[in-house]
Amino acid sequence: MPLHLQKRLPKRWGEAILTFLVGAISWSMLVALAGVVGFLVYRGGKVLSWEFLTTPMREGMQAGGIAPPLVGSLWVVTLALLVGALLGTATGAYLSEFSPKGRLHRLIELLVNTLAGIPSVVYGLFGLALFVVALGWGASILSGALTLSLLSLPILIRNAQEAFSGVSPDLKLASIGMGASPAQTFWRITLRLAIPRLITGYVLAMGRLLGETAPILFTVAAYYLPTYPQSPLEPTMMLPYHLYALITSGTNVARTYPMAFGTALVLVGITLLLTTIAAILRFRLKKQLHV
Amino acid sequence: MRDKLTIGAFRASALTIILALGGIMLFLFREGVPALTKEPFEGLVFAVHPQNPVRRLSADECRALFQKSLTWSEVGGPAVSPLPIHLYNLELYVGSQASLERIRSFLDSVAQLPGILVALPRAWVPASLRPVEVRWSAWEALFGRVRWSPTYEPLPEVGIWPLLLGSLWVTFLALLITLPLGVIMAIYTAEFLPKGLYYPMKVLWEVVAGLPSVVVGFWGLVVLVPWLQKAFHLHTGETALAAALLLGWMTIPLMASLVEEALSHVPRLLVEASYGLGATPWQTILRVKLPAIRSALLTATLLSAGRILGETMIVLIVSGNAPLLPTSPLSPVRTLPATLAAELGEAPVGSYHYHTLFLLGLILFLLTLALNILAYAITPSEKTA
């Protein structure tokens, strides 16, 4: 291993202490995360039950379960992911495999970076102005899902780019060399080999989208609607907004807070599960790439 | 044929990105700009008693008269106290014809009083009253005032400084946490972390960055806010500091991973030269590596600032939401995104309030855009260096 890549341990006392401190600070991140999640498990675990997950809320929001927001969240996020994955993967494929590396390529990459930097609440504003008002879809699953799919595009495009460019060029060249057209090479070789990484990206994006609150506030989320959506043009409750409503409605904190802790635990549980799986998968795949 | 179809479809989807960003900008401008060109009291007529010599009022004077914090004599009127009446959408809220008639006769009778000041739809202004001109300057109202009270009728107060400065204040405080801790974690991860723990650390970062902000905000409200209240003996722990602590913490992973990546790309020549001269690992880090990634540090800071600036839910939940100019880390603040999230749901589509909120969104968008463009403009110089 080259010298500059070796991890060198400090030999002086002062430096050793400094290193220890820096390490302690770094791992305190884990402590803090455990603190947040542990607290939610401790407080939310008490209300968590099969019934909590599968029944609608009752008595305002002070009793019962969280099935409608749970189902609503899954609906919206799944729909958003379908649209986002289709557009994102195709765009990623274009950028990574087909586009001439010219001005247009640079422009699109710049725009993707720009989109990634836009605050999520601004996406919510756009969704409100376009889908809800201008197109007249109202606050509905469709409006919310399309808003979220826009939000997910930068993550999904970058992920697809990485996935496709991660496929060994030897294989692509071999395919071209055997007379396959670029499109054939893409469909038969590149896409198939990129699938694990693509799926990782979808899982990661799903985790992110499930936790998003600001973009759904005005485009889809209903404050109190203990039924299940029948069509994509209906509004629905969603988990993050339900949690926010529970925190802030505050007419009877002694009864709404336990519900809030349960909701927070479910939300954090699902997103943590998805992000952790995706992150682990991703780093596994990255390791393989470097071998 | 199939090739053309595939590539054509992919190109089309790439072009939707241009469409998406264009659409976002178009709609922010379309809905935000009317806040600069329209008047909040569109469709209303202001009128006074015919013997009242006042012909013109500034928006501030008129509002003060409505709030009775100003008397007529102070604006050159009669020595009576103002008697403001503001009604609108009467047909919408009053059902029966008889009630409408009663309101009309009531208005006709109060029109005799010398202190009268009405803001009414044209058709409802009693014929005996004389209209006054109320001058509204959107720029002055938005950028020259420091009070945010956008639902006050008929003359809202839409000074955006409390919100803008609130946003900048919280971002600044949060960066004080993100910047040092992010750099420290990046140094540790790049330089000292045992190899087997590298990926677990990266997973930890991903997980923290992926926590739903509404959950972090809730945790802050239940744990951090009461703690701050006790520690600093405050009336409420819902302060800029609470928001900054949580935001700063959540943004550490972004900062750390950007810096860590830059650290791992420091040219080996520099590092080996440093070790060759007998420098210790820490001397190399502090005197060679960190100076070498100066511009990457700036980029990472700008990107983190952009992320913090746009965060909505945490601030909405823990910062107290008082639209006041921030004076200390312990004052409650309200930020641009939090204002959007809190008020847009209640602003009727197309109302002045609605347009004002879109203008705030436009300002937020332009701020983050500027930060991002700046960040990417700095980056390439790193690679050529």
Q: How is the main sheet of chain A built?
A: 2 strands, antiparallel
Largest sheet features of chain B: 4 strands, mixed
CATH-derived topology of chain A: MetI-like fold
Are there runs of chain B of 5+ residues with pLDDT below 50, and where?
Answer: 381-385
Largest interface: A-B, 95 and 90 residues
Q: Give the neighbour order of strands across the main sheet of chain B.
A: 3-4-1-5
Task: Give the topology, please.
The complex is a heterodimer of chains A (291) and B (385).
Chain A: H1 13-44, H2 50-54, E1 57-58, E2 63-64, H3 67-98, H4 103-117, H5 120-134, H6 141-165, H7 169-177, H8 182-211, H9 214-217, H10 239-249, H11 253-290
Antiparallel strand pairs in A: 1-2
Helix pairs in contact in A: 1-11, 3-6, 3-8, 4-6, 5-6, 6-8, 7-8, 8-11, 10-11
Chain B: H1 2-32, H2 34-37, E1 44-48, E2 56-58, H3 59-66, E3 83-86, H4 90-93, H5 97-110, E4 116-121, E5 130-131, E6 133-135, H6 138-143, E7 148-149, E8 157-158, H7 161-192, H8 198-210, H9 213-231, H10 240-264, H11 268-276, H12 281-292, H13 294-310, H14 313-318, H15 336-343, H16 352-384
Parallel strand pairs in B: 2-6, 3-4
Antiparallel strand pairs in B: 1-4, 1-5, 7-8
Report on this structure.
The complex is a heterodimer of chains A (291) and B (385). Chain A is globular, with a radius of gyration of 23 Å. A two-stranded antiparallel ribbon of chain A has the order 1-2. In chain A, a hairpin with a 4-residue loop joins strand 1 and strand 2 (63-64). Chain A has one domain: MetI-like (MetI-like fold). Chain A has helices at 13-44, 50-54, 67-98, 103-117, 120-134, 141-165, 169-177, 182-211, 214-217, 239-249, 253-290, and strands at 57-58, 63-64. With 291 residues, chain A is mainly α. The longest helix of chain A has 38 residues, at 253-290. Chain B has a four-stranded mixed β-sheet with strand order 3-4-1-5, with no helix packed on it. A two-stranded parallel sheet of chain B has the order 2-6. Chain B has two domains: 44-137, Periplasmic binding protein-like II (D-Maltodextrin-Binding Protein, domain 2), CATH 3.40.190; 161-384, MetI-like (MetI-like fold), CATH 1.10.3720. Chain B has 16 helices and eight strands. Chain B has helices at 2-32, 34-37, 59-66, 90-93, 97-110, 138-143, 161-192, 198-210, 213-231, 240-264, 268-276, 281-292, 294-310, 313-318, 336-343, 352-384; strands at residues 44-48, 56-58, 83-86, 116-121, 130-131, 133-135, 148-149, 157-158. Chains A and B meet through helix 1, helix 3, helix 4, helix 5 and helix 6 of A and helix 1, helix 7, helix 8, helix 9 and helix 11 of B.
